[in-house]
Amino acid sequence: MSQTGSHHPVSEETLPSELEQAHQGEVAENPFADPGLPPHEPRRQDIDEKAARASERTVALLFTLSMIATIAFIASFVIFPVDKIIYIWPLGHISVLNFSLGMSLGIALFAIGAGAVHWARTLMSDEEMIAERHPIEADPETKAQVLADFAQGAKESQFGRRKLIRNTLFGALSLVPLTGVVLLRDLGPLPQQKLRHTLWSAGKLLINQNTNKPLRPEDVTVGSLTFAVPDGLAEDQADFAEQIAKAALMIIRIAPENIKDKRERDWAYQGIVAFSKICTHVGCPISLYEQQTHHVLCPCHQSTFDLSDGARVIFGPAGHALPQLRISVNSDGYLEALGDFSEPVGPAFWERG
Question: For residue 90, how many other CB atoms are within 10 A of its CB?
Fold first, then answer.
């Protein structure tokens, strides 16, 4: 039993061409065959000089914005104090200096990148080029072709023609490196005399950091380790962290006959010696004391100091001995300092010598 239906006439237009049949056959054999590049479509800027100039002004505006942001970055160091705190929603309370530095530098770098991308996408040549693979070592003809392509690319980029873009790009690129120069200044406080002096001075009482009471010689027993701060340093004062980072003190009592260094013995009081608690490697607080050997160990990088021999370094990366504080007893029987440390505390710095 056969079925019949309507028949439509077949014309040559409805038949696939030989090229289409060949392409279908290639795809059937290799479904990942290279389909080739689509026809190139010119951008608006390629055919409309008015649009090209608008893109040029946009790129120049971004580069100019980068220059302004870089200047704002540098100005932030002069205008905003380090301890100025502001509230910014939703970030909360943050340092106005850190916020201004981050925002200005981020805008400066983003504007250069955005300007370069917009320049490439709207004004530089976007025609696709196919280059066959070749050996790593280029022949003279290939080298000549590369140079020719470079010259052609430079010409198509319109770098020489678009002077506004060129000049603003040079301005942005020349100013951004200044941010690194300014950051070098903020790697630490300017030494001047800040690192050479602490709160210790002649007549300052040694205050037990645990009890907040002045220390007497009888409070320090042989083999014990006591931490002390100068009289007048309170935890609620604004610069407490900065001051204790320089003035923190270790008090140890050693039998006078076991003290090897003469100056250490002269600067002690009945075997009670006072040394800086700040490690001379990277400034970690020292807190581990070995009674039998009179060694103290920094827990950060294991620098070891001999407190019976001028606190010299006997192991680890520390560069020099712990500074000693000369002490005595006042008329009321309390331990007091006879001056400041003999040298700057903590790690070495350029002007230390």
Answer: 4
316 close to 304: Cβ distance less than 8 angstroms: yes
Whether 180 and 210 share a structural domain: no
Dihedrals φ, ψ of 273, to 5°? -115, 150
Closest CA to 220 of 162, 272, 163, 157: 272
The alpha helices in the chain, defined as continuous H runs, are 18-29, 44-47, 49-79, 96-122, 140-156, 163-175, 177-185, 240-247, 262-267
Q: Is 245 in a helix, a strand, or coil? A: helix
Residue 251 forms part of a structural domain: yes
8 Å CB contact between 283 and 302: no
Would you mind telling me the total number of residues written for the chain in this entry?
353
Whether 180 and 218 map to the same domain: the answer is: no
Contact 165, 119 (CB under 8 A): yes
User: Do 118 and 213 fall into the same domain?
Assistant: no
Question: Could you tell me the two tokens for 82?
Answer: 């380090």
Omega into 90 within 30° of 0, i.e. cis? yes
Domain count along the chain:
2
Q: Is residue 1 part of a domain?
A: no
Strands (E), 96-146: none
% of the chain surpassing 70 pLDDT = 85
pTM of the model: 0.49
Q: Each residue of 135-176: pLDDT tens digit? A: 677 788 888 999 999 888 888 888 888 889 989 999 999 998
Structural domain for 68, as ranges: 44-128+143-185
* CA 53 to the chain's CA centroid: 39
